[in-house]
Amino acid sequence: MRMSSHDDSTFSRRNLLKGIAGLSAAAALSGCAMPGQKKPASSRSNLIRKENEKLGTRDWLLANTRTDRKSKYRCPWIEGFCSHTSIRSGETLNVFVSTNPKSDFTLDIYRLGFYGGAGGRLMKSCGSFKGKVQREPEIGKNRLRECQWESSVSIKIPKDWLSGVYVGKLTAEREKLQSYVIFIVRDNRKADFIFQCSDNTWQAYNRWPSQFSLYDDGKSEWYWGPGNDICFDRPYGKYCQILDQPLSIGSGEFFLWEFPFVHWMESQGYDATYISNMDTHADAKGLLRAKGFISIGHDEYWSLEMFNNMQAAIAKGLNVGFFSGNAVCGRIDPRPNSRDIPNRVFSRIDFFGPPDEKEFKRFPAMVLLPHKSPNANALVGARSIAPITGGADWVCSKPEHWIFENTGMKQGDGIPGLVGWEWHGDPAKIEGLEIISTAPTQDKPGHQNDGLYTATIYPGPKKNFVFNASTCWWSDALSEPPGYMRPKVYTEPKGPDKRAQQITRNVLDRMIA
């Protein structure tokens, strides 16, 4: 909930690749196959492994980015958005693109994963297309900015595109400037894991075209109350909070908090299928396709339907891992856009938890919310609680627990800086709930801020469980994919850690045992 400003800047490929040159070409191409190679018949558990044996590339990285000085967040030279947050094979994805000044453009689509360390695979190259300046939307009721753009590219999703997170790299031919569009390919298959992207939160913090997020009411840049409407029908501007990440232009928050988890998970060959927050909202039965469900990174905004659907799935035996912080905090109300397309508009209507005077002091507009929604700790195991932000080492509080098997961790051992920048406390009074990691938080090294993070695990009714890591930064300890930039605020995580990797394996393996 902090903001860092961004100036007009151009980002070169040399700068972007700085710090990742250590990945060898051999590692990037290990186990690859030729593009278009027919996928052999395999069990469902081999789908991710077989996919990641195909030829990877780093060409998905943006080589030349820029943000407009006036708006701070947008890239008007080339920007776009997709008709779907998630889409199935056989359905048509429309990509809406604007180029200002007018320019021809190309669109290259990549699936993101491991791919021998390269991080992505080229799926389709499109164009060149005639670009045009598309009209910036007027400010609507409740500050809504809903783009009514003409479709620039239509793509029928091929049957052989495996579920995953996909980016389209847009390149304006006039100045060679680039930005992303992002979407999820989902399926209906049974899988070991459902990986839920936190795209409600991506959109909540999206300030495109300038200061029009869930957090700006026209008076305050960090407003936490009701009355603002936001919409998926607009490009993602540059991320505005913890760090200056060029890859965030057009891609929400995916590269910041979630991509290292995807990169590591697919490197291990875990069988995952991917969905959007809105799939959790609209498809309750779909949650039962898997043995385990994982929430990653910054998963702040949920609807009541999401909350209820997840509780019902846990009651039926679904295992859940909240590898996230500030999860299930703000309640939203997904609804149709002006063209009656479902779940494209939402606003903040409540907080998943009781009123807290400490929170009101920091975010005065919270007092305007009814605080009548369920307590998030009843689902997650703990919840966002004042001071909400801060950092800490992730400390072993119960070394005898199976979570810590094969880690070598002893009582009081910590993984440096892994808790941040938002976390969970106030553990629920659920029968069998265990606190596996807890420690005071700090707002700078050596200076505590009266916070106490609490990582928990509690049993479900079908020998299942719900794990809560209590940090937005868990993924940082798993991998460093190409283009990744480490966050630093309050504390600084230290990158891949064998202990955190083993804890993650323990959780995932127990889910599918």
Question: How would you describe the overall organization of this protein?
Answer:
By secondary structure, the chain is an alpha/beta fold. It has helices spanning 13-17, 25-29, 47-52, 199-204, 254-267, 277-282, 304-315, 357-362, 377-380, 498-512; strands at 9-12, 64-67, 79-82, 86-87, 92-98, 105-112, 120-129, 153-156, 164-172, 178-185, 191-196, 229-231, 272-275, 290-298, 301-303, 319-325, 330-332, 345-351, 392-395, 414-419, 434-444, 447-459, 465-468. It has a domain at 273-512: 3-Layer(aba) Sandwich (Rossmann fold), CATH 3.40.50. It is globular, with a radius of gyration of 21 Å. A 7-stranded mixed beta sheet has the order 13-11-14-16-23-22-21. Residues 1-43 have low confidence and may be disordered.
Short description:
The chain is α/β, with parallel strands linked by helices and 513 residues long. The chain has helices at 13-17, 25-29, 47-52, 199-204, 254-267, 277-282, 304-315, 357-362, 377-380, 498-512, and strands at 9-12, 64-67, 79-82, 86-87, 92-98, 105-112, 120-129, 153-156, 164-172, 178-185, 191-196, 229-231, 272-275, 290-298, 301-303, 319-325, 330-332, 345-351, 392-395, 414-419, 434-444, 447-459, 465-468. It has a seven-stranded mixed beta sheet with strand order 13-11-14-16-23-22-21. A five-stranded mixed beta sheet has the order 4-10-9-6-7. A four-stranded mixed beta sheet has the order 12-18-17-15.
